[in-house]
Design goal:
The protein is globular, with a radius of gyration of 20 Å. It is α/β, with parallel strands linked by helices. Strands 3-2-1-4-5-6-11 form a seven-stranded parallel sheet, with helices on both faces. A two-stranded parallel ribbon has the order 7-10. A two-stranded parallel ribbon has the order 8-13. 42% of the residues lie in helices and 14% in strands. Helix 3 packs parallel to helix 5, helix 5 runs parallel beside helix 6 and helix 7 crosses helix 11. It has helices spanning 15-26, 47-53, 69-79, 93-96, 100-121, 154-173, 195-207, 228-239, 257-267, 297-302, 311-325, 330-338; strands at 6-10, 30-35, 59-63, 83-86, 126-132, 177-182, 185-186, 214-215, 222-223, 226-227, 246-249, 255-256, 276-277. The structure holds NADP nicotinamide-adenine-dinucleotide phosphate and ligand G4F. NADP nicotinamide-adenine-dinucleotide phosphate binds at residues 10-11, 13-17, 36, 38, 42, 65-67, 87-91, 106, 130, 132, 182, 184-185, 191.
């Protein structure tokens, strides 16, 4: 009889990690979530699956910082996972300009150390690295697997290092190590300081009178936004291939931040200009990635992957969820909006 698979996920408390864990648990994997110790337990996004799967031993949580190599090695030796998804990261581009060294330690060196441990201790384990469209930086769109990397931030630099590390272990040591080069993907679980969630969450707070304005930085930059649920499915598909490889996941359509703002405010028939200020210095970056638009034809052909959500679906999903957080339905929010 075929044994059920087991997987390690670093970054399981994050947006993608939580959706990926749900997907793998539904597929009957045993999931090991590696989380760092924090003074306040940060497990909101995985509370539901902990309640459902921990007692039946399908989900195990381990306190391990991703930079703690010896502890990761001990865990690999103990559980010998089939698949290792490395999603943990200092994932905020703007913050990385102030935390360069930590960003490289968490995002680049940890990847190297995990792969070295897999090579020495459990060579058959498949490895996934969460690479990013931020690596393309100033390269012209559309960007695909053959596009040159021109990173514009410490975050971008750290992800380029991890990308090449992953490729190196694949080519030199025969490890199944794949890079997913994912363009921006969002969801109701997106962190509050990324621009999309900041907009939907702040709008909900404006409606209940807790905020007056949304202060943004540069809203002329363009991003290719998808839904995290679609992208974690693509990640899993990469790991089911016979051969490791690198794949771009994107929708192929990009919009400016201004377009995103307009779409969200239009849902409530509000004039965004009354509520949004731009070019706030606190959110401007020393160097910007101006234009990201992915060409994911390789993933669509080989993995047979394609996204189900478009940007309108995503905006609605995120706004509805933030309204719900503050006790409002969409219809109630529309009524309140009329009075603003
Ligand atoms: P996220 O929500 O910010 O989650 C990051 C995760 O990494 C969290 O679980 C965080 O734990 C964990 N983490 C950070 N430092 C750690 C450390 N030292 N030890 C252990 N865990 C640590 O990010 P995401 O949006 O889900 O993205 C997942 C991955 O994909 C990241 O590597 C990101 O760089 C990459 N990526 C994301 C996108 C995107 O658009 N979302 C696009 C391309 C690539 P805490 O909860 O304790 O903070
Ligand atoms: O939402 P953002 O912070 O995402 P960014 O920088 O594109 O990074 C995200 O996507 C990457 C993939 O390309 C991931 F690798 C990375 O981990 C992360 O998930 O900013 C999007 C754009 C930027 O141009 C930024 O300058 O929005 C602009 N922006 C304008 N005002 C703002 C704001 N960004 C943030 N976070 N907050 C603002 O107030």
């Amino acid at each position: 009889m075929k044994k059920n698979k087991s997987a390690f996920i670093t970054g399981i408390t994050g947006q993608d990690g939580s959706y990926l864990a749900e997907l793998l648990l539904k597929k009957n994997y045993t999931v090991h979530g590696l989380i760092r110790r924090t003074s306040v337990l940060n497990i909101d996004r995985i509370q539901e699956i902990i309640d459902k799967y921990e007692k039946i031993r399908k989900l195990k949580i381990h306190y391990i910082d991703v930079t703690d190599t010896s502890s990761i090695t001990n865990l690999i030796l103990k559980y010998k996972p089939n698949e290792f998804y490395n999603l943990a990261a200092m994932s905020h581009v703007g913050i990385s300009f102030f935390t360069g060294e930590a960003t490289l330690n968490i995002n680049s060196l940890a990847c190297y150390r995990i792969l070295e441990s897999i090579m020495k201790n459990h060579k058959s384990c498949k490895f996934y690295q969460a690479s990013s469209s931020e690596m393309f930086g100033s390269s012209k769109p559309p960007q695909n697997e053959k596009t040159e990397f021109n990173p514009q931030s410490p975050y971008g630099v750290s992800k380029v290092a991890a990308f090449h590390t992953t490729k190196y272990f694949r080519q030199a040591h025969g490890i199944f190590a794949s890079n997913g080069i994912l363009f921006n993907h969002e969801s109701p679980r997106r962190g509050l300081n990324f621009v999309t969630r900041k907009i939907t969450h702040s709008l909900a707070r404006i409606l209940i009178g807790k905020e007056k304005k949304i202060e943004l930085g540069d809203i002329s930059t363009k991003r290719d936004w998808g839904h995290s649920k679609d992208y974690v499915r693509g990640i899993w598909m990469m790991m089911q291939q016979k051969k490791a490889d690198d794949f771009v996941l994107s929708t192929g359509i990009n919009y400016s931040i201004e377009d995103f703002v307009k779409k969200v405010f239009r849902i409530l028939n509000l004039d965004w200009k009354k509520f949004v200020t731009t070019n706030n210095k606190a959110y401007l970056r020393p160097s910007e990635v101006r234009n990201l638009k992915g060409d994911s034809s390789k993933a669509r052909k080989i993995l047979k992957w394609k996204p189900k959500y478009n940007l309108d679906d995503l905006c609605l999903d995120m706004l509805k969820s933030d309204l719900k957080l503050y006790g409002m339905t969409l219809d109630e929010a529309k009524k309140i909006a009329k009075k603003l």
